[in-house]
Design brief:
- Helix content is 25%, strand content 22%.
- By secondary structure, the protein is an alpha/beta fold.
- The longest helix is centred in the middle third of the chain and has 13 residues.
- The two termini are 21 Å apart.
- The relative contact order is 0.18.
Length: 270
Amino acid sequence: MVLKKAKLLFKIIFFDIDGTLTDKATGEIVPSAFEAVHKLEEAGHFVSINTGRAAYKAEWFRAKYDFDNMVCNGGHGIFYQGKMQENRPIDREMALRLYHQADEQGYGLLFSLDDSYKVYGKDFKFYDQVGLRNEPTKYIIDDAFDPDKASEIFKMYIPVPPEKEAELTCLQELGDYGMGYIRFDPKYLCIQVDEKKAGILRMLEYAGGTIEDVVVFGDDYNDMDMFDPDFYCIAMGNACQPLKDMADYVTDANVDDGIYNACVKHGWIG
């Protein structure tokens, strides 16, 4: 592959976590990726995580592996120099429109009203329809709970089967509001922020540098938002094909030292 011409002296490099930095089989960072990250920092590059994970799900990883900087919550959370600078919810008006449509169709919804493992619901309909969420959760069920009175909404969970998604027509509008949806479990949708690129631009306001300095590493569909033509985009060898098609360079699989090899190939580390 012919490499895009790029200035190699200083880079602002963003790494997805799952399937990029980490071995999905173990959940741990690939040793050669860990080595590459610290060599990049020693060489003077700015390094940051960029993950769709909520802050409370990503903070332990950031701290354990000594990342000073992190974009999280799908682009709405910013950690800079080890401290959270901001963490914003999803668009409230759009979230409530989707809630009312799903509610009218008979689905029981759960809401995250802050960045934590707590979810709120007005009844047990979600559990009756699909059971428990597939992750540690504190459930707060109160028949007086009214989503319309929530000042902020960070995520929503809708127990709609895949074959019924098209009936929730509001789903098609989420992208206009910096939102998207994903299935961590096939039985339900998670509505969340989908603005990894916007998170990069916000981080540049803290870190300095220019768009031309940005390099992104990713592997999956939720990384497509940050695979922007303005950035230098590197897909892992284990990446989904649509992401590879968008990439400027495709490296080896993450567990085959893909991050380390790409950094050496481009001259960012020795």
